Amino acid sequence: MRELSEFAPVELLVCTTCRRGLPIEDDAQRPGTLLHKALEQADLPTGVELKAVECLSNCDQGCSVVLRGGPSRWTFVYENLNEADDVDVIVEGATKYHATADGLVPWRERPVHFRKNCAARIPPIGA
Amino acid sequence: MRELSEFAPVELLVCTTCRRGLPIEDDAQRPGTLLHKALEQADLPTGVELKAVECLSNCDQGCSVVLRGGPSRWTFVYENLNEADDVDVIVEGATKYHATADGLVPWRERPVHFRKNCAARIPPIGA
Lengths: 127, 127
What we know:
The structure is a homodimer of 127-residue chains.
Chain A: E1 10-15, H1 31-40, E2 48-53, E3 65-68, E4 75-78, H2 87-98, H3 112-116, E5 118-122
Parallel strand pairs in A: 1-2
Antiparallel strand pairs in A: 1-3, 3-4, 4-5
């Protein structure tokens, strides 16, 4: 078994402009921003870098995040995430993704929300 | 103005396993495979490489394609594409994407189908 440190670092991209379909006042913090803040406080493993991004263009199914990590891993987009309820789901999914070389966590080991709310997956660049 | 040849090559990934929500017999060709075949015959510009991929995991909104191209371009996933009607749309969208350094075709210049059927966009790796 290989050490995790042999694998490429992982990026967890969070769309911070997401309104999650809600009518948000201009001076209020958006659900995507709140999700990013919650993840800053969460227990993400070393090797998973949290990044704020503007608009993943999946606005009707937000909040959304992306997991990607180097030229050998599949990239995944997950949707319908709630800033209040789904932080643990994202941490679990990111941790398991980080522990793979190719990004493909076995189906039954993926968080149920991830199984049911995958917007898209994109093959590795180096495949 | 820079020459197109200065930009990184573009990949057009087509999900060939897509059933486009139809009940497809086991021995029949799938809509995704037919879309890939139609694009093989289409007038894609030099520098856009067509690639068949298995399952982009956007099955409910297929057929789906991905446009990506090097570390400086945004990646886009487009959905609800029909193998019979949308080949020209994909060629137009891929051609315009290829003509950008960052993958961001101005909104009004994008094919209408692309504007209305973007499943997700993912920022450049090198950004």
